[in-house]
Amino acid sequence: MGYVAVKGGTQAIEASIDRLKYDRLKGNEIVEINTILATMRNLVDQVMSEASLYAPFLAALAIKQAGGSMEEAVFLMRAHRSTLPRSYYSETVEVEEMFVERRVSASFKDIPGGQLLGATNDYTHRLLDFSLVEETLEENKQWLSDYQKELEKIEASEVHYFPKVVDYLRAEGLFDTYPLDNTSPKDVTKESIQFPTGRSERLQVLTRGQTGAVTALGYASLRGYGQVHPTIGEVRVGDVPIHVKHPYEKNQDEEDNFYIGEIKVTEVESFVPVPVKKTNGNEELEFDIGYGISFGQNETKAIAMSILDQCLESPHGEFPTHDEEFVLLHIDSVEATGFISHLKLPHYVTFQSKLDSIRQVKKGGKVDAD
Amino acid sequence: MQTKPHFAFFDEGSKKEIRRATLKAVAIPGYQVPFASREMPIARGWGTGGLQLTLSLIGKKDVLKVIDQGADESVNAVSIKKLVRHTTGVALTDQTAEANIIQSRHRIPEEPLRDDQILVLQVPNPEPLRKVDAREYMTKRMHAEDDYSGAWLILFEQIIKYQKMTTGAAHPVYVNGRYVMAPSPIPRFDNPKMHASDALILLGAGREKKIYAVPPYTKVESLAFEDFPFTKESFQGKQCNLCGAEDVFLDEIINQATGDRIYQCNDTSYCVDRLNHSEEKEVENSYA
Asked: Lyase: is it a keyword of this entry (chain B) (predicted)?
């Protein structure tokens, strides 16, 4: 009788897993990995970003297996990541060399190179499009070929790199220039973060943070629980090439690096005015940069990250958003969802222990004698 | 597209890193060694710290026992065993004496452990000073400076308010007279089993990314005052309604039919063992 609760765990688990499978299959439909890759690009991007594993195919598989649950898909990817040996570190990515798809600045109307809207939901009206209910491949093909024809009419200009907006302001002396810091970043997945953290550690934790959590904390800071109100210098989305060095050969030329592919990233530079003490004792306002970067197209998260980066650069006792332990230790999807969900595990031993304590107190501290 | 898991899930580099942290933990009893802590195929907070220790230690000849809140058949224990079995093929057992690695959530088995066994405890909150200060930076400093006034103060305040210490599970312990350690949320009943244990006790906190240890024969004292001694949960006058055991940690169960409170061994394999033995004896006696 009493043993029912703890016996039969094996069968119960198997039955539960079968039931889960049944729920996935009972609708008699299959979503192909390719369908997910082709039509749910943003979901794939978000999963890769939170999983900190750039692998669109695996992300799509994870989404399929997880039945579309974000936290579950990220979890699958992270667990898979643990099984992969990490043999190389890439060379520094030069984001100026991005093949830009989209790039906007909120700071200037006219930025050198121009604003480039690219693909964005920003200007769509969020009305449910009921025509999608009856969408057909034929119609889509027709639309695509028309679109292609329209594009052909536009004369292609030369492919060029877009310069960074901040470079112009630097030239004007509005931003401090810093010498290049080529210290190797600490890999937070190989060595757990210790406080106080370095910026490389903070940026890593922020970029793999749960989209909702990073957004919420960035928003809190912006709204009043923080001291950072940025202007977006630049948001850019596009592909950057990744190179690795030969692992054994020394003194090689950069030209000899291996190109291993490209990844899509969203990069944000936020401009934040900060008071700076000058040598003459006067305070002046200068701009500082909050930096955000994320795998794929994840603009809200990358912007929120840039706010939190700047918050953590200037610790402030009053605001939790400026406290690195508060921010960095609570935004990870796998950690947060895991610990919250562990409350579903039985706790009867710990509860019995507390119960004993409380009963003793009720008896006036006397040792239980019944 | 099929891929086979690596032996014990991790790549060898990850295992080495965990073992290095474990060795350091054994060398500094009670000190929380940070480690990178991989994401596991089970959720954070569901025993990933213990699981990482187990997987880094386990070899093909090992025999594994996993318990959750005292029970071998509890769903999460079953799930962990299934994963280790799937990635290693090692033998599993319910018998405490047969296992050489015992992974446990919140209990130390009733049967005394031996020096050829390792107990791996799953830890949700490794920091005994977390209630003193929320910031890791500060608590780390307190450990370094041997400043445990906060830990004592918490107990003192309980006595002032309630005339006794009101800790439930995870009553803090002094290890080797130096570090104050969270013994994982084992009931106070199990705290004394840590003292001078024959078996190596390893504690793993996956989400909090810490490994710590109580090496065999180490002094472990539960924090207490001279006039307010440490007390275990009291089961005086109660016994297991199945095997009759006394002086074991008991689960309190409401008999749904009668509404009575009855008690049963929390350590299920210990209980079953006792039942089997008494049955054997009965059989022997009836033949004799």
From this structure: yes
